[in-house]
Structures are given as C-alpha cells and as structure tokens.
Amino acid sequence: MDNAGPSMRRVVTRWHVVGLALNDVIGSGVYLLPAAAAAMLGPASLWAVPLAGVAVLLVVLCFAEAATHFDTPGSSYLYAKTAFGRFVGLEVGWMSWLARVASIASLSAGFAQALGYLWPSVGGGLPRALAIALPILALSAINVVGVRSAVNAVAFLLISKTLPLLLFVGVGLFHASWTVASSQPPGDGRLGAAALLLLFAYAGFENTPAAAGEFRRPRRDVPFALLLHIAVITLLYVGVQWVALGTLPGIAASETPLADAAARFLGPAAGLLMTLGAAMSILGTNSNSVLNGPRYLLALSRDGYGPRFLGDIHPRFRTPANAVLLQAAIALPLALTGSFVALAELSVVARLVSYLGTTAAVPLLRQRFESRPGAFRLPGGALVPVAASLVTLVLAASADRSNLMAAAVALLAGAAIYAARRRPEAAR
User: pLDDT tens for residues 359-379?
Assistant: First the structure.
C-alpha cells in the first residue's frame, strides 16, 4: 500500500494504543456480565471469568506476534492475506468490517436504551432517534478531522467509563462475602452459551492493529498494548464478578447487576453512577468501532475490493474520510430502523472468523518473516497458534444456528465481492 497521494500521520503513541485496546474491550458487557454468567454457571462463574481470560490470552498472543510484522492498516485482513492469499484475506477482512458495522448499529441503539433508564423520554420517537444519530455523527466527525482527535476522545471515554468500575471494585472488596457468593443459585448449566458470553466480554482487542498505519511504532507498541490489556482486563473482570456475586443475592435475576449491587453498599447515587458508566462504556466502544472500521475499508479498497475513493486519504486531515463517512451512512439507518439485529447476530461468528484467520496464519507468517530482527516470537513453536485455533473452533461450534447461517450468507457475499474485484492501483 505504498501510495503516492497524501499519507496518514503516525501520531498515535504507545499509551494511546493501550487505551485503544482497553476501550474496545471494556464495553457495556461488563455491566451485564455478572448476572448473565451467574444465570448460566452460578458461583462457578467466579472461576470461569479468569479461565476465559486464559483462553483469550492464547488468541491475543497470536495477534501480538502477527502484528509485529506489519505497520500498515488492516489487522487480521493483512495477516490472512499474507499467509493464505487474497481470497481468504478478503473473507476475513470483509467479516471484520461487518462486525464493526454491527457493533456501531447495535451499540448505538443500546446507548439510547441506556439513556432511557435515566430519562424515560429518550425511549422512543424523535428523542430516541437523536440519541442514536448524534453520537454516530459526532464520533464520525471527530474521526474525519484527525486521528489525534479520535484517540484523545477514546482516552476521555476510557477514563469516564473505567472510574466507576474501579470505584465499584475498590469499595466493594470490603463488602463482598463468600457466604453471599456461594449461596447464589447454581445456574442452568449452559456451558456453550457461557463460553461464548465470556469470550465476547473479552472481545474487541482484534481491532487494535487496524489503525497501525497511524501508530508511531506499531511493530513494538501493538504487542505491548495487547499483552498489557489482557492482564488488566482479566484482573478487572475478576474483581467485578467477585464483588457482584458477593454483594447482591439472587444476582442472576437482576437486569442491572452492577447498579443494583453498588446501590447496596454505596447508596442509591452509586446505582445512578453505574448506569451512567454503562452508557459511557457503550459510547466508548462505539468510538473505537468508528475509528477502526474505516481502516479495514481503506485496506480492502486499496487491494481492489470496493470503490477507489474508499482508499483515498483526505489531503488536509490525513484520515480515510470517505471510508468514515460511508460507514456512518450505512450504520446510522441500521441503528434507527432496528434492522441491525441480524448484523448483531452475524458479529458473533464474524469475530471468530477474524480470530481463526489470524491464529492459523501465525506459523506461516513466522516462516516468511523469520529473519526480521526484533520480531516478537511466541515460545513453543506452533503450540500456542494450534491451541488458539482449537479454542476458536470450539467456540464456533457453540454458536447458534442463526449465527452460523448469517455468517454463511456473509461469506457468500464476500465471495461475490472477490469475484468482482477490480485491479488495484500500484500508485495513487
């Protein structure tokens, strides 16, 4: 992708990359995870959370090694294309972008719903439409103006949504009781559904390398950010699960478990704070999707998939402005009409396609770039990539039939896009 036109600016620092990784993972799911996990696993959910972190770590390690070989946008699309060729790469990149669109649409509707808990007038009509549309438009405008403004917005939203969680864990540790936690009902034993739930509470890290073309030192900073983020996220999730289980009897029946638990040991105002934190979490995760999604479109367009203008860089702002605006134009009506539901189901398996494309690519990328100095290299030969691929396949087998059917239709659409591929320009 060595183009003669305007280039993107490499202004994103190491700690900004860490913030991007954390912001994409800490979403609304952490506010609902304790109740949903307890409903399926009961008290055992406390141990399932760190075990899920270990399983996800295998996949994270593969992304960390793959990222050390690339400094251009595309993430798993680049990894799969380089290892397996254009067709597999296109399918992985296409599915990765669809997952971003699904995320923006569904989370935007979820943001309006969260605001509806605080201000009932947002529950429908024009107020709901504005609650959906304004954040999408504002985040898209921020991302058009420049990647620096985009990552600064990410940093603000990350702090805003993490502080309530740290308060919840920090104070709740002194109130949590093993007696309360162990007395929770045993759960319904849906292990497959629980595995998918826990995996996707940790999901989002795969998009961190998507904007590598704007990172100062992507080959060093992305592996660092991914490894640090999984450690932080696992500790945070374990703390949240323990406090919630240990302070809120009958947690499985709660629709707002963290708000209900916080209200018990911090008072009603804390419940309101957690609800606000959930809304900020949704907005923060959406900011990452608005940032990363266009970088997939940029990479795909420059390889001949899609209109040429999606591969252009704005001459003043040095961002993929056309891709940002097109993505907003697609996601906004999906969120407003509610037709995002099918895409949300698709995103479950779409992420797994991205994971499998990367975990399977690592051994081949290792052979191709074995002479590159300073590259991050996983120990144990192919052990970690094979184990990570098996984890991904097991999770895919646990997906609902509707999710798998939606993914099959999307993959067929990807094949049609591949067949219509235009010849990419060597220079723009």
Answer: 999 999 998 887 677 777 888
pLDDT in tens, 175-216: 999 999 999 988 887 777 788 788 878 988 999 999 999 999
Q: Report CA dihedral (360, 364, 370, 376) to the nearest 10 degrees.
A: -10
220: CB partners within 8 A, 6+ apart? 14, 68, 374
Q: Tell me the mean pLDDT in the region 53-63.
A: 94
Phi-psi region at 2: left, alpha or beta (left = phi > 0; alpha = psi -120 to 50): beta
Angle at 224 between CA 222 and CA 227, to 5 degrees: 105
How large is the angle between the packed helices 340-368 and 401-419, nearest 10 degrees?
Answer: 60
Cβ of 67: how many Cβ atoms within 10 Å? Answer: 28
The closest of 20, 15, 295 to 153, measured between CA atoms, is 20
C-alpha torsion sign, points 215, 98, 354, 425: negative
Closest CA to 22 of 127, 134, 161: 161
pLDDT digits 0-9 by tens, 103-117: 888 888 888 877 877
pLDDT digits (tens, 9 = 90+) for 292-348: 999 999 999 999 998 999 999 999 999 999 999 999 999 999 888 875 556 666 677
pLDDT at 424: 63
**Residue 70 phi, psi (nearest 5):** -135, 145
Burial zone of 411 (CB within 10 Å; 0-12 exposed, 13-18 middle, 19+ buried): middle
Q: Nearest 5°: phi and psi at 12?
A: -85, 120
Give 201-252 as a DSSP string.
Answer: HSTTGGGGGGGGGGBSSHHHHHHHHHHHHHHHHHHHHHHHHHHHHHH-TTGG
How do residues 19-48 score in pLDDT, each as one tens digit? 999 999 987 778 878 888 898 999 999 999
325-343 burial code (b ≥16 CB/10 A, e <16): bbbbeebbebbbeeebeeb
CA distance 428 to 420: 20
**By the 8 A CB rule, do 31 and 278 touch?**
yes
Closest among 372, 296, 351, 298 to 65, alpha carbons compared? 372
Tokens of 290: 């608005």
